[in-house]
């Protein structure tokens, strides 16, 4: 049942974003920023954690989850380092995921031999 909840939740988020892309003139980059900011705000007011516990990976993998991760990192950084944590907390919290994406993207480019478009 956990897999079904994650699949349906992630699918509904993706469908909502696709509708937003189709029905508005917002560019994809702005929609991505909107999702990260919404995840941060929902985390700050305490609504994202219960949702993420219920939905599992369907809530934590999309950009909303990344925004929530950044918020948690900033909150922990402020608790640990004061005002300096405001600047370092998000980097610390997101470093593993971003590093993994870069490393695996590079490794797949070595295996697949990408070519430039004409």
UniProtKB/TrEMBL annotation:
The keyword Transmembrane applies. Pfam families: SpoVAC_SpoVAEB. The chain crosses the membrane at residues 31-48, 83-107. The keyword Transmembrane helix applies. Keywords: Membrane, Transmembrane, Transmembrane helix. This is SpoVA/SpoVAEb family sporulation membrane protein.
């Amino acid at each position: 049942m956990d897999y079904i909840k994650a699949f349906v939740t992630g699918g509904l988020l993706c469908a909502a974003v696709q509708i937003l892309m189709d029905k508005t003139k917002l560019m994809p980059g702005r929609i991505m920023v909107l999702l990260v900011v919404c995840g941060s705000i929902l985390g700050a007011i305490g609504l994202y954690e219960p949702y993420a516990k219920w939905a599992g990976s369907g809530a934590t993998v999309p950009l909303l989850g990344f925004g929530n991760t950044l918020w948690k990192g900033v909150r922990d950084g402020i608790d640990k380092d004061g005002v300096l944590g405001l600047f370092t907390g998000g980097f610390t919290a997101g470093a593993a995921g971003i590093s993994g994406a870069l490393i695996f993207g590079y490794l797949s480019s070595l295996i697949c031999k990408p070519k430039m478009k004409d």
